[in-house]
């Protein structure tokens, strides 16, 4: 098993067998990974949500169609448990966006506003840590 962050994320996303298209763009020179997800909206349109996993950021920032999430939680790397929670956050956010899109289609909502489940993820980490289910294996940014 590799200790490479990019390989880990790609493998985990492939395991999820997502029902909508996505792509990954890796920018090693700035230690960033962009994940683009395209959710159906209406008949022929797609709603794009971007997750920017940023190696230089230390906090979550939410914009209209983009969420910036810190890539690392330890020096020059990330714990596997942390990345697992980031991917769970992405999954939860996409589920929420899909529901919002449905509400827009049914005219029960005016716009789609992606939100990051920060508090839920903090609670999950605390729970997993307390029962020794948080993986502290270090993954690194391989050049």
Describe the structure.
It is a single chain. With 143 residues, this protein is of the alpha+beta class. The chain has helices at residues 5-15, 80-105, 118-130; strands spanning 22-27, 32-41, 45-54, 61-62, 66-70, 77-79, 138-140. It has one domain: Protein of unknown function DUF3013 (Rossmann fold, 3-Layer(aba) Sandwich). It is built from 3 helices and 7 strands. The strands form 2 sheets. Strands 1-2-3-5-4 form a 5-stranded mixed sheet. Strands 6-7 form a two-stranded antiparallel sheet. Helix 2 runs antiparallel to helix 3. The longest helix has 26 residues, at 80-105.
Q: Got a strand count?
A: 7
What would you report as the Rg, rounded to the nearest angstrom? 16 Å
What would CATH call the homologous superfamily?
A: Protein of unknown function DUF3013
CATH topology: Rossmann fold
What's the domain count?
1
Number of helices: 3
Low-pLDDT runs = none
Record the strand order, biggest sheet. 1-2-3-5-4
User: Which CATH top level class fits?
Assistant: Alpha Beta
Return the CATH architecture. 3-Layer(aba) Sandwich
What structural category arises from helix and sheet content? alpha+beta
Helix content: 25-40%
State the end-to-end CA separation: 17 Å
Rounded average pLDDT: 92
Q: β content, as a range?
A: 25-35%
N-to-C order of helices and strands? HEEEEEEHHE
Main beta sheet: 5 strands, mixed
Shape: globular
């Amino acid at each position: 098993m590799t200790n490479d962050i990019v390989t880990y994320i790609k493998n985990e996303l492939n395991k999820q067998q997502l029902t909508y298209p996505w792509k990954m763009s890796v920018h090693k020179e700035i230690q960033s990974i962009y994940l683009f997800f395209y959710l159906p909206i209406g008949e022929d349109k797609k709603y794009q949500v971007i997750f920017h996993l940023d190696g230089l950021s230390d906090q979550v920032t939410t914009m209209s169609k983009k969420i910036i999430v810190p890539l690392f939680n330890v020096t020059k790397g990330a714990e596997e448990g942390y990345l697992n929670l980031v991917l769970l956050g992405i999954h939860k956010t996409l589920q929420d966006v899909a529901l919002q899109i449905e509400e827009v289609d049914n005219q029960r909502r005016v716009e789609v506003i992606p939100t990051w489940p920060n508090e839920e993820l903090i609670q999950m980490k605390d729970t997993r840590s307390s029962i020794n289910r948080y993986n502290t294996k270090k993954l690194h940014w391989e050049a």
